[in-house]
Design a protein that fits this description.
It is found in: Cytoplasm. By secondary structure, the chain is of the alpha/beta class. It has 16 helices and 24 strands. The strands form 4 sheets. Strands 6, 7, 8, 9, 10, 11, 12, 13, 14, 15 and 16 form an 11-stranded mixed β-sheet that branches. The chain has a 6-stranded mixed β-sheet with strand order 17-18-22-19-20-21, with helices on both faces. It binds ligand UAG, adenosine-5'-triphosphate, 2,6-diaminopimelic acid and magnesium ion.
Length: 496
Amino acid sequence: MLLSTLLSRYGITPALAEDPTIKAVTADSRHVSPDSLFVAIRGQHHDGAKFIPLAITAGATAIVTMHDNHSPPIGEHWEGERKAIIIRVHNPAHFLAQAAAWVAAPLPEHIIAVTGTNGKSSTVDFLRQLWQLRGKTAASLGTLGVITQADTPPMPAMTTPDAVALASMLSTLQRSHVTHVALEASSHGLHQHRLDGLPLAAAGFSNLTRDHLDYHETIEAYRDAKLRLFRDLLPPGNVAVINADMDPDTYNALTQTARQCGHILRDIGINATTLRLLEAQPTPQGHIIRVALHGEPLPDITLPFPGRFQVDNALMAAALCWEEDAEAPAVLALLSQLRSVPGRCERVADLSNGAAAYVDYAHTPDALEHVLLSLRPHTRGKLHVIFGAGGDRDSGKRPLMGQIAAHIADRITITDDNPRSEDPATIRAAILAACPHAQEIGDRWAAIEDGLKRLGPGDILLIAGKGHETGQVIGSTTHPFDDRALTRSLAEKVSL
Ligand SMILES: CC(=O)N[C@H]1[C@@H](OP(=O)(O)OP(=O)(O)OC[C@H]2O[C@@H](n3ccc(=O)[nH]c3=O)[C@H](O)[C@@H]2O)O[C@H](CO)[C@@H](O)[C@@H]1O[C@H](C)C(=O)N[C@@H](C)C(=O)N[C@H](CCC(=O)O)C(=O)O
Ligand SMILES: Nc1ncnc2c1ncn2[C@@H]1O[C@H](COP(=O)(O)OP(=O)(O)OP(=O)(O)O)[C@@H](O)[C@H]1O
Ligand SMILES: N[C@H](CCC[C@H](N)C(=O)O)C(=O)O
Ligand SMILES: [Mg+2]
């Protein structure tokens, strides 16, 4: 694409002496290739502007950098024999996302993003499944990776990859004929403008509770980052789905934003008007739910997996799936064919004495509360939970998680999650301060073995925090560790 075309799409129409063809866009000087555009972004550790000379040496012919109120909006920079055109904008990260999407185009025609503290991965997984059941070629993209079909292993991804990687993944999906993509919008991703270039067909917002305050600092800033999905990214006139049972502050902010932006608002949940949950009756395998669509009750639906929160996520996926209201009953009828999401309230082992073990990805106070409350109705004996907290992440979550476990569980073991660069004993101590009667077993393997051995008839063991993860990060090393596989193999031995 010509530089002038790219700039004019962004609303900049300078008279350029030269108009180079831009073959690639990047914000990482280490990835600059010849004829590329380098966007200098100010991050937490570096100001990308200091890498401009390196980028030009590596072949960048155009540079986009932050407007500084002194220099003209367009200029040029020589690095030895090499010259690049310099363009100054007010928000380089926003520019990067747009430019990356234009250069990577065409992208899949139907892209939907889901945000919220908890439930993003589950919702996008369910949405992908629903689309596939309706005959679409669909993918989901997020914490669980890029998933295209049930029988192909997922490609790894961050929850929301950086703008360039995201555009490139979407372009790859488009080339393999994927038309429908459901992706997770993390608060980091929204705050850093990673999704700003995507033409969203619809968006969903599940809930907002405490997480990531290490990064956002205040809950207001965290909410504001997430609100960007509706406020800045979803085009007017498109479908916005919210869970009507979320906290009132976020609910009010979302409904007001949706109204101001002219979105078609749909809600789901006990307090909803579009898709109201009338009853969710737990069964040994999952739930039987009754819902009303715009006030009209529909036939019972069986959801074949446990976790009361998965009822909300499945309803949100359905409300994001139908395009016209007339399609809604057919979409809702498909919910009974959904498969569970790996590591989300997943029943991984049954012991010969009738006890069972579940693995879940609860790593926030709200998630831990939801999964423990979900498992209580299935517990005929005692409810035992094993969990820790990730290092280098919001430390305020730790005592809150301890408090919740102390209120709901009968037995608690505090162990290590991913300590990362932190001292694991200090993390455990912060949780234990709020649940002093818990036992402490730092070694996660030993904690799980101990938990399984202590299970009595009808007891339930919940191993929380790492879900689908297959590694444990200690320091900067990731050691192989898989709660699900380990629990299965230890349970076989314990059951003998
Ligand atoms: C906290 C955070 O989100 N950090 C992201 C951020 O890093 P940063 O601000 O430290 O960047 P920086 O190192 O200061 O660099 C600034 C700029 O200089 C560039 N640079 C840097 C070095 C160099 O030699 N040359 C160069 O050009 C960088 O490419 C960048 O554009 O920008 C980087 C480039 O895009 C990201 O890789 C990095 O994500 C890191 C790896 C990360 O761990 N992020 C996590 C916290 C995250 O985003 N997680 C969420 C999930 C959260 C959830 O659970 O909901 C996710 O969406 O995955
Ligand atoms: N709708 C929900 N409400 C409350 N808790 C939920 C909800 N959905 C999921 N959870 C809890 O959050 C955990 C993580 O779920 P999921 O992976 O779907 O969320 P996520 O938003 O993608 O998380 P992450 O921020 O790590 O990507 C689940 O294992 C469960 O404990
Ligand atoms: N996306 C989340 C995942 C947390 C998972 C938990 N096991 C931990 O390591 O804290 C994060 O990076 O904060
Ligand atoms: Mg996720």
